[in-house]
TrEMBL record:
Keywords: DNA-binding, Transcription, Transcription regulation. This is AraC-like DNA-binding protein. One of its GO terms (molecular function) is DNA-binding transcription factor activity. InterPro entries: AraC-bd, Homeodomain-like_sf, HTH_AraC, HTH_AraC-typ_CS, RmlC-like_jellyroll, RmlC_Cupin_sf.
Amino acid sequence: MSKVISFQIPKSENSFIQYQEDRGNHFYDSLHQHPQAQLTLIVEGRGQLLVGDYVGRFQPGDVYLLAESIPHVFRSDSDYYEDNGTLKIRGNTLFFDFKAMSKAFSEVDDFHDLVHLNEKIAGCFKITGETKEEISKLLARFGEFSGLTRLGHCIHILSLLDFTSKDMMPLNQIPILKTMTERDGRRMDQVMRFILDNSKRQISLEEVAEQAYMSKEAFCRFFKLRTRRTFTQYVQQLRVTEAKKLLLETDLSISQVSYQVGFQTLSHFNKTFKNLTEMTPKDWRKLE
C-alpha cells in the first residue's frame, strides 16, 4: 500500500489485502486516515500513538488493530529525528479492504463472519496475550507469503480476532468519530504537530488556535469534538504519557521529570499523574 498523504485517501484497489513494511528513521508522522482497516506490528521503534481520542505510547512488540477511516498517527520520539542519528524504525502492517471483500464474497455463506467482521472493529484495539504472540509470528514473516498462502494466513489472522477476549484491549471511547474532511484533517494535523513539538513548554490557547486559523471559542469546540478532551486535558495527557516513559527509562528525579515534560509545579504534576493513571509517579516507577 502506498504511503497515505494526510487525509487524502487512496482509491481502493480490487484487492482485499495490502501489505506494507515501514523502514527508515521514523514512522510517517502526519495525522492521516484511509478506508482500510489496519493491523500493525511494531518491530522496532518507540513513540506516541494518537488515534481518535486515545493518547499513549508504542514500543517494539506492540500490535494494534485500527478501524477504517479513523484519524491516527504513530509519532516517533524526538530521538528518531536527530541528524546523524542511528535509531531506526520497523513496522509491518496489513490493510484490509472489507468493501472489496464484501463485493466478492457477500453471497457466500461460508464468508459471512469474515465479511461482517469490520462491523466489530470499532476504534483502535491493542492486541495482547496469546493472540498477540500468534499474530506477531505471522506478521513478522508476512512478506515471505504470496498467492493463496498469503490469503490463507490473512484469513487465519482475522479468525484470531475474538472481540470478547481480554486479549483485545479497546483504546477508544464509543462511539468513535471517524472520517474528517480533508480541510479539517489538515487543520488537525497542523494543530497536533504544534502541540507535540511544544508540549514541554507552556502553550497558550491563543497560540494553538492561531495554528487552526480559528478564534479561541471556535477552536475549543472544534478540538473537543474530535478528541473528546479540552485542549488543556489533551496536553496534560501528552505530558503524563511522556512522564511515564521517563520515569521508567531514566534516573531523573520525579521533580526533574515533572519540569522536563512541561509541568510548572511538582504538586500539579503529582495530582494530574494520579488522576490519569490512578498511581503516583513514585508507584509507577516501581513497575520497572
